[in-house]
Amino acid sequence: MLLHGIFPPITTPFYPDGNVYYKKLESNVERYSRTPCAGIVVLGSTGEAILLSDQERRDVLKSARESAAPNKVLIAGTGVESAIETLHLTEYAAELGYDVAMVRTPHYYKKQMQAANILAFYRTVADRSPLPVIIYNFPQATGYDIPAELVIELAEHPNLIGIKESSGDVEKVRKMVEGTRHIRRSATVTETFEAVTPRMLAAATVGSGREGGELVQVGSLAGTGSSSSVKPSSAAVTIVGKMKTRQKEVGFQVLVGAAQKLHPSLDAGSVGAILAFACVAPTACYEIYVAWKEGDAGLAHLKQERIAKAAQSVVSDLGIPGVKYGMDFNGYFGGPARLPLLPLTGEVKSEVERLLADIRN
Predict the structure, then answer these.
(1) What is the 3-state composition of the chain as percent helix, strand, coil, each rounded to the nearest 5?
(2) Cα–Cα distance between 47 and 136 in angstroms, integer?
(3) Which of 162, 174, 261, 347: disulfide with 134, CB 3.0–4.6 Å?
(4) Model's pTM, two decimal places?
(5) What is the pLDDT of residues 183-212, one digit of tens each?
(6) Which of 164, 175, 261, 303 is catalytic?
(7) How far is CA 15 from CA 318, 335, 338, in A?
(8) CA-to-CA distance for 177 and 248, rounded, in angstroms?
(9) Can 349 be counted among the known catalytic residues?
(10) Which residues touch 33 (CB under 8 Å, ≥6 apart)?
């Protein structure tokens, strides 16, 4: 499955009394669905998943799934400390129609998180998961940093398709990319090389009168006549219902989580990012990615410099309360965080507004 691009790990809105505000969650998801982001992550760290009950996690997954646009890749944060509970939540996400499971590193028993433990945990989850799995490494929160060597070893598993690397260590990104370069997998994409998931394919066949796919020469679809004019490397597309698809070779996909280091991370080999700052300013993050993808390093650098200070302050320094206030400032619903997280002071809010003054999207 293709995971290229920018993904906001959406926040969970709350009423002032701490209950989940589902209507605002739906409104935010609908708005993110209209941005150029490749997809949406639900129940990541920015979603305060660790502060939700099991039933709330399930209800948030359901509400977000029902509000998302059909062409967005949907990633569910399903990592819990035990493999069995992780699988229970992953199975539920699959029933709802999510496309990928994001599983954070277990970390509570840090001294026991040796290589054998981590390998057994992820391999067990990947073996039994109905969804493709991406590893989630966030040592600033967990206190555990999965070594690049372990990631490279885990990448051999066919159902472990990538990692969200939030350490901010660009050299680690480079090491993981180099160490997994030999992995080659095929992903279904649209004619314009955007992601296609089994959920999207199933939706494309509804009411189409077709089941399965049909191979058609690209030349005939374009009206160019003889198939002899088509290059062998792009010989055919597959028509599935109302959708035209093709195959793209992808490797083990490294996504990053530090917006202030997005451009250097892309240069190091990452294919995209899951960025808390994209909850505040999704288009500003996407502009860095698209400039890099089009080979305009100068523009990518300028776009990176535009958000670097704000991303560092609002996300890395202030955390979820900073992200949520930034969302309020930019027209989304951020609202309060759950205790023990406290709201920003008036002085800090003014500083956030100053940092985001020219990043209004």
Answers:
(1) 45, 15, 35
(2) 14
(3) 162
(4) 0.92
(5) 999 999 998 999 999 899 888 887 555 544
(6) 164
(7) 21, 8, 10
(8) 18
(9) no
(10) 40, 67, 68, 69, 72
